Amino acid sequence: MNAEPTLKAYFDAFNRGDIPGMLACLSEDVAHHVNEGEVRRGKDLFRSFCVHMGRCYREELTDMVVFSNSDGTRGAAEYIVNGTYLETDDGLPEARGQSYRLPAGSFFSLQDGLITRVVTYYNLADWTAQVS
Questions:
Q1: Angle at 42 between CA 40 and CA 85, to 5 degrees
Q2: Which residues make beta-bridge pairs with 85?
Q3: CB atoms within 10 A of CB 17
Q4: Tell me: the pLDDT tens digits for 10-43?
Q5: In whole angstroms, what separates CA 44 from the centre of its chain?
Q6: pTM summary value
Q7: CB 49, CB 34: distance < 8 Å
Q8: Which residues, including other chains, have CB under 8 Å from residue 106's CB and lie 6 or more apart?
Q9: What is the DSSP track for 90-120?
Q10: Reduced to 3 states, what is the DSSP secondary structure of residue 92?
Q11: Nearest to 116 by CA among 31, 2, 5
């Protein structure tokens, strides 16, 4: 099984702001490893995270390259986050509609064609400098 169609569907849904589309790519017990944060388990916590992010940030991912292993159980993506900071997020600088452009990457585990683990990395200090 090839992981790339699932990962591409996940990122296409992200770029549309389509939370149900993203959730359709995830297992019920997905482990979401948030950059600079705790691991959130399950679709309900993933949905809550997405709603919060959609309120504070408007983002589009570009320059995407998706990778996967031969048995479809692992994948990764490298991309550029093009965003606007919409509403102040707790513990972060004040939002004033600032734009940012940030390299980032995600790593995935999959089982039966669904994402069971999402890990996202970006440089928070770089983001903070861009919006400060």
A1: 50
A2: 57
A3: 14
A4: 999 999 999 999 999 999 999 999 988 889 999 9
A5: 15
A6: 0.94
A7: yes
A8: 76, 77, 79, 118, 119, 120, 121
A9: TTSPPPSS-EEEEEEEEEEEEETTEEEEEEE
A10: coil
A11: 31
Q: Which fold has domain 4-131?
A: Nuclear Transport Factor 2; Chain: A, (3.10.450)
Task: Dig out the tokens for 37 from the structure.
Answer: 């944060």
Instruction: Go through the chain and tell me how many residues it has.
Output: 132
What are the residue boundaries of the structural domains of the chain, listed by start?
Answer: 4-131
The DSSP 8-state label assigned to residue 47 in this structure reads: H
Amino acid letter, 63: D
Residue for token pair 């983001």? 127
Give per-residue pLDDT as tens, 49-64. Answer: 999 999 999 999 999 9
**Phi then psi dihedrals of residue 42, to 5 deg:** 100, 155
Dihedrals φ, ψ of 46, to 5°?
Answer: -65, -45
Report residue 67 CA to chain centroid gap.
16
Separation of alpha carbons 95 and 99, rounded Å: 10
